User: Fold Oligo-1,6-glucosidase from Ligilactobacillus agilis.
Amino acid sequence: MRNNWWKKAVIYQVYPKSFCDSNADGIGDLNGIKSKLPYLKELGVDAIWLSPIYLSPQVDNGYDVQDYYKIDPMFGTNEEMYALIERAHEMGIKVIMDFVANHTSDQAYWFQESRKSRTNPYSDYYIWRDAGPNGEAPNNWGSNFGGSAWTWDETRQQYYLHYYASEQPDLNWENPKVRQAIYDVMKFWKEKGVDGWRLDVITSISKDTNFPDNPQPLTTSNQQNGPRMHEFLHELNKNVFTPYDMMTVGEAPASKAADASLLVDPKREELDMVFTFEHMHIDRKENDINGRWALQKPNFVELKSTLSEWQKQLRDRGWNALYFENHDRARVISRWGNDTKYRYESATAFATVLHGLQGTPFIYQGEEIGMTNADYSLADYDDIELKGNYQFFVKEQKTISEADFLKAVGKVSRDHARTPMQWNVSKNAGFSEATPWLKVNSNYKEINVDADRLSTKSIFKYYQKLIQLRHREEILTKGSYELLLADHPSLFVYRRKLKDKTWLVVANLTDTTQTFNVSEFIKGDYKFILKNYAKPESSPALRPFEAYIIEY
Ligand code: TEU
Ligand code: CA
Assistant:
């Protein structure tokens, strides 16, 4: 029997490298996380999800796993991980690990063996293909980090497939031994107390084994929702998730709401939730050759219609995972809101519309104090995606100018989320006594946990209230959902209803005052459940990023 604890929960994502460094080597670690559990308890979250902490060469910050059974010494020891889990559990906080199941590091034992010959016991653990007649790659697929998705291996005299860096070879899920090996790892961590999984690019595990060319060379359009994906996920569920009662949230980049309803319908026994990318693309030009670097103004009509479609499709047929930020996303207030004059207002406005929806909200470290994008110059960035894409789009394909690329990087680079957590005004923002592995945002003297909590406009306290509501109010988990003013370009307004209780969630997502008359929606008395301006406006208007929830 599954215990669906996560339906009432709020989950906090920790990016271990950048959260808290306990031993002054400039890198966050497990003991650092443990020392901050009281902070997370105070915030009120029910679970933490840790980005990968397994042994890894860190080509992609741990999303290149060398050994799934071993904690990277940079983060601590296995014993320290077990102690962290135990401490978290004592405090009533569950622990979710990140499982990278689509690929491993090229330094993993399996790959080291696999590349030796075509006949060894691991030869079929990865996806190997012969070269074409002129030595060319088996097809024209591209890698997410730029260039071909195939790399030639001298020893084995074959190409291997990698959707990400060449140091991240894709596992061959067609091989039952690979699937069994993954179940074994999951059971090992379950035994250590882990409560669930965030499954990295899980919709990529099944490949089209005919390997047809993509319409556009070196693109990534054929990477998702392969022919055996549902079958593999169902098998995973029957072997691990259901018998061991582990929560799952899968990363599902190309899934639309209709696809998701297949992935998370409890009757189908696959996943509990998925992370969609759809609503995060509202500031991206569609089908542009420069992909994530082709930006436009955020389209909030689209944001509303996408989120509403997911609310509708998954109602009674699964469950939503709600997020605006994670380790791959820039800070939402820098991207869509206003990270200077209306930092508090925009942070709380986006939080209000997200946490008011049906689903499980995910908070990314620093989001709860309104951390902003970094003020980096090109040399300060570290991310392999950015570097690979710079080489590919700017230098080789020349489809985007350096200036436009840098402008996009300033908005959406993954590194903006990865800057060290800003705890206080002391050196390196209280993150570490040593120079951090990635530069601290220079605004840490104004924006940090201590300062936020002392402020009369505390984002942390606003999040505390949202989390309390989630725990207390059934209307949030069970209530119906109805979008109002669907075509309004600036306002996000919706209604939740459960029995005789009705809530109106209202937010102005822009920095200009908007006309809005509550009495058009509500007859009679109402009361405020939450609001981000001290005094509600008496005139029929919403001030910049004004947001509230009212009950009537
Ligand atoms: O991300 C998968 C993913 O789809 C994004 O990295 C995407 O390629 C990028 O945002 C471009 O749109 C997951 C992890 O979250 C990420 O950190 C890893 O780099 C990636 O998988 C490979 O493991
Ligand atoms: Ca450390």
Observations:
- Residues 21-23, 25, 27, 29 surround calcium ion (ligand 2) (CB under 6 Å).
